[in-house]
Amino acid sequence: MAETQEQVEFIWKGKDAKGQVSSGEVTAYSDMAGRAELRRQGIRVISIRKKPKPLFAKRKAPIGSKDISIFARQLATMLQSGVPLVQSFDIIGKGHENPSMAELLLSIKANIEVGDTLAEGLRKNPLYFDELFCNLVDAGEQAGILEGLLDKIATYKEKSESIKAKVKKALTYPIAVVVVAFIVTAILLVFVVPVFKELFDSFGATLPAFTLWVMGLSDWMVAYWYYVVGGVFATVKTFGFFKKRSKQFNYFLDRLMLKIPIIGVILNKSAIARFARTLATMSAAGVPLVEALESVAGATGNIVYYEAVMSMREEVSEGRSMQYAITQTGLFPHMVIQMLAIGEEAGSIDAMLDKVADFYEEEVDNLVDNLSSLMEPFIMVILGTLVGGLIVAMYLPIFKLGAVVG
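User: That's the sequence. What structure does it adopt?
Assistant: Structure tokens below.
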């Protein structure tokens, strides 16, 4: 896959048609290309050089999936309004707030100008445009319905981003609770409890067992805090290492996540919603079923569902019906199987799967809202137990001393 050359800003000095000296900036792939562009504008170049980078250059923002989703909607809208493809890229690219995204779009525009199709231009940037996106664009170009299909892609990307955000919210909330609880407890043990320990040592009184246990835990944290920090860091790095490189670990992790109460239900329903939405979009675009299922498998976001869909693909390629293939996986609810079977018989798989996707996306939305409501008292219980337990442990000797004095 050929890499896309980045455009560079050049500072030039030259003479216009009237012989007057002028200067300015031009963006091109090379100084030769910059000279050619200036000649087309009627300028005789005296000198041209790369624009120096500022000493403290602002770091470019990365291109996210949300940027791609917005681009798909903007391009669909412009093409439906009758704006030519190259001009659409020029307008979107030059008006984009993210410089990285602007560079990407202008480089694709340059590829289209030299003869590439839109699908070919997108395929040269696989980090940002996946096979599903490129296949749908390719199908739209070949069928002459690019405008309509881009609208479907934009809708698909928007709904996909929406469900990803909901799942991320569901997973982030409990993790944030655990992290906050750990940090608050560590601060109390390292900085607050030792102050009380010095005070109690000056009394010389016998301390309650619970207080002694907390003080011992505090002593250990103060003495070996670097082990705790190192252990957390090593655990995170090890997790990341195996997550990127081990298929078996990912399979174990994804299967485990699907079995966690509440969270597992959300992940299952979101995978089914992605499956239905992606297959509906590809079916509406006229992509052959066997070819579509390979892209659908990658869009489910879970390796367990990925392998199930790939198994379905094998069954369908051997001539079996989708109803039979999806039943054999044992992962999909009866409603999904029946809706797919009705769609197969009626020749309207895309319409039926769109309804399935709408239903499960709403289910995920409701579950995430319910989880948020459930987590609020859960947070109070965890933080109350940890912080309240430490406070009680520190004040027990004071209450005991007060009782003796009284």
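Strands lie at 8-15, 21-28, 44-50.
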